[in-house]
Amino acid sequence: MMLDGPRALSWIASSFEAAHHLPHVPPGHKCGRLHGHGFGVRIVADAAQCGQRELARAWAPLHRRLNHHYLNDIAGLDNPTSEVLAQWLHQQLSDAVPGLAWVEVRETHSAGSQFDGKTFRIWKEQRFESAIPFDADGNYTGHSYLVRLMLSGGIDRTMGWLLDFGDVKDRFKPIYRQLDHNPLDKLAGVRGADSAAVAEWIHAQLSPLVPELSRIDLMESDDAGVSLHFRQDMRWPLL
After folding, report:
1. Residue 176 and residue 130: Cα distance in Å, rounded?
2. Which of 38, 46, 48, 139 could make a disulfide contact with 99, Cβ separation 3.0–4.6 Å?
3. 1 belongs to a structural domain
4. With 50 as the cut, is the pLDDT of residue 2 above it?
5. What pTM did the predictor assign?
6. What confidence tier does 3 reach under pLDDT thresholds 50, 70, 90?
7. Is residue 204 assigned to a domain?
8. MF terms per GO, please (predicted)?
9. Domain boundary pick from 78, 97, 117
10. In this predicted model, what pLDDT tens digit does every residue of 159-172 receive, in sequence order?
11. Per-residue pLDDT reduced to its tens digit, 74-88
12. Phi, psi at residue 63, to the nearest 5°?
């Protein structure tokens, strides 16, 4: 259980393995080939209306329908992108789960989607290694970072996605190259080498390329980091 402002949220996490392909991608796109994933799923609800046992009970028949199956053969999943799958799960669960808040689907360890009944949200994560100033004598130390880029909006009804995860990575690539294996205080226009300043710099560089960008998390470790929100509804927690 966790707190989201004044309300408590209950959630369960699970996984399933399944094959699929995306029928509407351009020729040569890797997702057009038959492939598969070990998907992660998280179902989140208002704890005052639905507990973890009820969530697990509602999820069990869906797990049986999805696990070790070909997703394209399931009604409503003929184009099973992460966004479509999150929406489908939300629709399947909405009657059985009072207070359903959102459904998350992780396609890989670094990319996923969320649907809350109205808004689609996706994220793409990347790690980079950088140098940062260590002391007043001009010495440097190194640090490993994880950046999580979050987008929100509607989906393209033909493609079934908000934006291709590969396109997010490609648009971020020239910015990533400036971050990775470089001193962060030397970035052109950065106001400092602290995480907040670097996250602001990433936003300034990336937002013209990705107008759907709504939040940036820059993690210094599993326990520490900063989040920049550019839309009020992006204050949702990523569990």
Report:
1. 11
2. 46
3. no
4. no
5. 0.89
6. very low
7. yes
8. 6-carboxytetrahydropterin synthase activity; metal ion binding
9. 117
10. 999 999 999 999 99
11. 999 999 999 999 999
12. -60, -40
Give the pLDDT confidence score for residue 239 in this predicted structure: 46
Distance CA 188, CA 234 (A): 28
Catalytic residue, candidates 21, 31, 83, 125: 31
The answer to whether 126 touches 155, Cβ cutoff 8 Å, is no
What CATH number does residue 109 fall under?
A: 3.30.479.10
Residues 75 and 164 in one domain: no
Same domain, 173 and 125: yes
Query: What is the DSSP-derived secondary structure letter of residue 176?
Result: H
In a domain, 73, yes or no: yes
**Is 107 assigned a catalytic role?**
yes
Whether 23 and 79 share a structural domain? yes
Q: Which of 99, 117, 135 is the last residue of a domain?
A: 117
> In the chain, how many domains are there?
2
φ, ψ of residue 41 to 5 degrees: the values are: -135, 140
Q: How far is CA 138 from CA 123, 144, 185, 191, in A?
A: 36, 20, 11, 17
- What percent of the chain is modeled with pLDDT above 70? 94
Give the tens place of pLDDT for each residue, 163-221: 999 999 999 999 999 999 999 999 999 988 899 999 999 999 999 999 999 999 999 98
Q: Which of 83, 104, 107, 125 is catalytic?
A: 107
Catalytic residue, chosen from 29, 35, 68, 181, is: 68
Contact 200, 187 (CB under 8 A): no
Q: In sequence order, what DSSP letters do the residues of 192-236 get, joined into one string? A: -SSHHHHHHHHHHHHTTT-TTEEEEEEEEETTEEEEEESSGGG--
d(CA 146, CA 219): 5
If asked whether residues 85 and 147 sit together in one domain, one would say no
